[in-house]
Design brief:
Elements: E1 2-8, H1 17-24, E2 31-35, H2 40-50, E3 53-56, E4 69-72, E5 76-82, E6 92-98, E7 104-111, H3 120-137, E8 145-150, H4 162-170, H5 172-175, H6 189-192, H7 201-204, H8 211-219, H9 230-235, E9 239-240, H10 241-245, E10 264-268, E11 276-281, E12 284-285, E13 288-289, E14 299-303
Parallel strand pairs: 1-2, 7-8
Antiparallel strand pairs: 1-14, 2-4, 3-4, 5-6, 6-7, 8-10, 9-10, 11-14, 12-13
Length: 316
């Protein structure tokens, strides 16, 4: 039937067109949901190189620097953008496409709030965003649709490797190599630490160099892992594509250089569950390591009828 990729391309993907193309081209996706698609030139050129059409969630304004995009090899029937007050990171993009056998699929692309330094308050914000998205998608209940993007949340009871995340944030060579010099400034420990805990920064800098402290930090992930209502999607019947096919694999998607947590997802409506035949987290494309293209790893899924399924295995 069709294949999809969900991909946060980091700060518009500016300056990384070749690497992004290499990450996407060998998988021949029919649909690509892009997050942080703030550079329309990059989106348009990616679409041209891949032989796809594209849609954006809206024009960029001074107070809103992010938008989502969908690249599609399939005919695009209509596009809708939602700018609900709870959707503070980027608008929710909805694109209706048609498969070769005439099936209409609605694809939603989202980027949930980060603000990790706000702790439980940020978790509450993401929960409200998920609830709002579920309410919007309720209009299409009973019809096939997908929700994909960067949720900045992990599913409860899934692990986070805090030591790897900390090492990544403290080694600017791993992150800033992807960005032009003018973009320096994130991530920092202030980005994840609440103000009342910032006195711990000197101690935290020593954690990645100490195996015992690293193990302790990883074991305490329950106290700092970001959440945000992903169970609402499960309760509404949506299928976590990767977890459905990989019950035990970590499936970490961020950061690409030192994967520490699974925060990028493809969720399918119940009507598509029987067609889900493959899902993977992609680590390279055309010989290019994923951490050369973005700070996130793309998530890939294939949907096909039983007689169309290639029988390919997936890896976690």
């Amino acid at each position: 039937m069709f294949s999809v990729i969900a991909y946060n391309i980091l700060a518009g993907g500016t300056g990384r067109l070749d690497s992004l193309t290499a990450m996407l081209r060998p998988y021949h996706p029919d649909l690509v949901g892009l997050v942080e698609a703030s550079d329309e030139h990059v989106v348009a050129e990616l679409a041209r190189r891949l032989g796809m059409h594209y849609r954006l969630s809206g024009q960029i304004h001074a107070d809103h620097i992010e938008q989502g995009a969908l690249l599609s090899r399939l005919p695009i029937l209509e596009t809708t953008t939602y700018t609900h007050s709870f959707l503070t990171k980027q608008p929710l993009l909805e694109v209706c496409v048609q498969t070769p056998d005439g099936l209409e699929i609605r694809v939603f692309v989202i980027h949930l709030t980060a603000n990790f330094y706000q702790g439980r308050r940020a978790d509450w914000k993401r929960r409200q965003e998920v609830q709002t998205i579920v309410e919007i998608m309720a209009a299409h209940r009973g019809k096939p649709h997908l929700l994909m993007g960067d949720f900045n949340s992990v599913i409860r009871k899934e692990r986070v490797r805090g030591s790897a995340m900390l090492r990544y944030m403290l080694d600017e060579r791993l992150y800033y190599a992807l960005l032009p010099a003018k973009s320096r400034g994130l991530p920092t420990l202030d980005y994840i630490l609440p103000p009342r805990w910032r006195f711990l920064k000197p101690a935290l800098r020593s954690v990645p160099r100490n195996p015992l402290l690293s193990a302790w930090l990883d074991a305490c992930d329950t106290f700092y892992a970001p959440h945000g209502g992903l169970e609402i999607l499960s309760q509404a019947g949506y299928i976590d594509c990767f977890r459905r096919l990989h019950p035990h694999a970590p499936g970490f998607t961020w950061p690409a250089a030192l994967p520490a947590g699974r925060i990028d997802f493809i969720f399918a409506s119940p009507e598509l569950e029987a067609y889900l035949c493959a899902c993977d987290v992609l680590a390279e494309g055309e010989g290019v390591p994923a951490d050369r293209a973005s700070d996130h790893l793309p998530v890939f899924a294939t949907f096909a009828k039983a007689e169309e399924s290639p029988g390919a295995t997936t890896r976690g």
